[in-house]
Amino acid sequence: MEMVDIDKLDALSRLRRRVAQLSPRTSHSIHKVQRRLRDVNNKSYEPEMIAIGPYHHGKNELKKMEELKVRYMQSLLDRKSDVDAERYLSAIAEVGKKAQDCYAEPVSLSAAEFIEMLVLDGCFIIELIGAGRKNQNDRTFHGLERDLVLLENQIPFFVLCELFDLIEGPEKHTLLMRRVLAFCRNVFPGNVMYNPGKRSDEVKHILDLIHSNWYPFPHNTSTATQASRFGLIIPSAAQLKDANVKFKKKEYDRGRLRFHTSRGTTVFDIEFKEDKGVMLMPTLRISDGTESVLRNLIAFEQYLPSHEPARITDYALLLDGLISSSKDVQILSQYELIENHLGSEEAVADFVNRLTKNVFYHKNNFLYADTFDRINTHHKKGWNRAMAVYHRDYFSSAWAYISFGGAIVLLLFTAAQVVFAVLQQF
Fold first, then answer.
1. Widest Cα–Cα separation across the chain
2. pLDDT above 70: residue 161
3. Measured between alpha carbons, how far is 346 from 327 in angstroms, rounded to an integer?
4. Tens of pLDDT along 209-234?
5. % helix / strand / coil in the chain, to the nearest 5?
6. Four-CA torsion 154, 156, 162, 165, nearest 10 degrees
7. Concatenated DSSP letters for 298-358?
8. Is 224 left (phi over 0), alpha (psi -120 to 50) or beta?
9. What value does the mean pLDDT take over residues 370-394?
10. What whole-number percentage of the chain has pLDDT above 90?
11. Can you tell me the mean pLDDT for 244-262?
12. Cβ distance 62 to 49 under 8 Å?
């Protein structure tokens, strides 16, 4: 009995020491991608050209761009001769500890190396997104937009704001946000809607800024606190077509930076009109970079508190429901709801079906809860399926319509002859 008490006291002492050694809890905002997501497609989360921040800093395959960062720094110093390098370093040194606390994983750099990295990376981004800095025809810049929106390739946004204050003047953070969005707009599969209500001190990093602006509008957001009555499952596009659903493209201006307005449209603005059996969707452009952008936004949402909406994840779940095979891609492409730049329809189906693999999602506050309910209610009505099958079997071509019309005319002509003959008897 005495031995048990000694063991218990020893365990209690060890536990107290471990608790005392805990570092103060901080609110991390820059995370690494969770292993379960990387296992599905590791390449989508890796920078191809440039390292921003400490997680990929110093990798051999990315060192070529380090010289470009220094050249941009020199160009900045030449252009802004009233501010020397020491002022940039001093400004970031003031927030160095705060910046380091933003990273959820340990940073393997000394304090001086970390400050130098933040200044070089931050000044490079500001110079890169500056007016006239980006040359669309220069191959050097192809892919940089993609690397700037990777979850693991970020520096705190307040670091960019500190440097921007010195370069462009204080309190011009709205200009900084708009320049970032304008530079990155080509990586969006749809149009970018600048949200003027988002303050710079609320932005965690560039990926967070994109997440806040490439987003559904409040009037399109489901207010339901529960998921769809039918669960997070909808029939595929082919099944919906068999249930007499008509697909129509919803128009919007792609590739432009616009202000958030109640009349705006994003790729998330999807409607199902149950009374007409019509599904309205903006076109989704799927190219080589689409998977990386969506995966990193979804990876970012995996760290959001459960009460916060994960709209990109919700959208991916909707796509996964609509697309089960290449046949579904063919149907959606036919109605211009998908713009396929991957080549084969099988490649698009595979990309969509793997997008939500190993992704955690919350059934509550689901963006498309009402839409899912409407779709499933329509699909479960036997009359809709019967009409669609009848249409498919008997009116699958223009000749079928012509034959049917001819038969109707012949029937009416025959009926008229009968009536005329009967009348002649009297």
1. 123
2. yes
3. 9
4. 999 887 655 444 444 445 556 678 89
5. 55, 5, 40
6. 60
7. HHHHTTS-TTS--HHHHHHHHHHHH-SSHHHHHHHHHTTSEEE-SSSHHHHHHHHHHHTTT
8. beta
9. 68
10. 57
11. 68
12. yes
Residue type, 225: T
Give me the pLDDT at residue 348, please.
97
* Higher local confidence (pLDDT), 182 or 405: 182
Strands 192-194 and 257-259: parallel
Q: Is the pLDDT of residue 308 over 90?
A: no
How many whole angstroms separate alpha carbon 165 and alpha carbon 409? 78
Burial of residue 332 (number of CB atoms within 10 Å: 0-12, 13-18, 19+): buried
Which residues lie closer than 8 Å to 217 by C-beta, 6 or more apart?
193, 260, 262, 264, 266, 269
Name the helix (H) or strand (E) containing 164.
helix 157-168
Handedness of CA 152, 158, 163, 167 (dihedral sign): positive
- At 53 the pLDDT is 97
Q: Which residues contact 424 (CB under 8 A, 6 or more apart)?
A: none
Please provide residue 255's backbone torsions phi and psi, each rounded to the nearest 5 degrees. Answer: 70, 15
Rg of the chain, C-alpha, whole Å: 29
Q: Do the beta carbons of residue 125 and residue 181 sit within 8 Å?
A: no
**pLDDT recorded at residue 219:** 42
Q: How many CB atoms lie within 10 A of CB 152?
A: 22
Provide the whole-model pTM: 0.82
Between CA 276 and CA 375 the distance in angstroms is 11
**What secondary structure does DSSP assign to 8-69, as a single string?**
HHHHHHHHHHHHHTPPPP----B-PPPHHHHTT-GGGGS-SS---SSTTTT-GGGTHHHHHH
10 C-beta neighbours (distance < 10 Å), count = 10
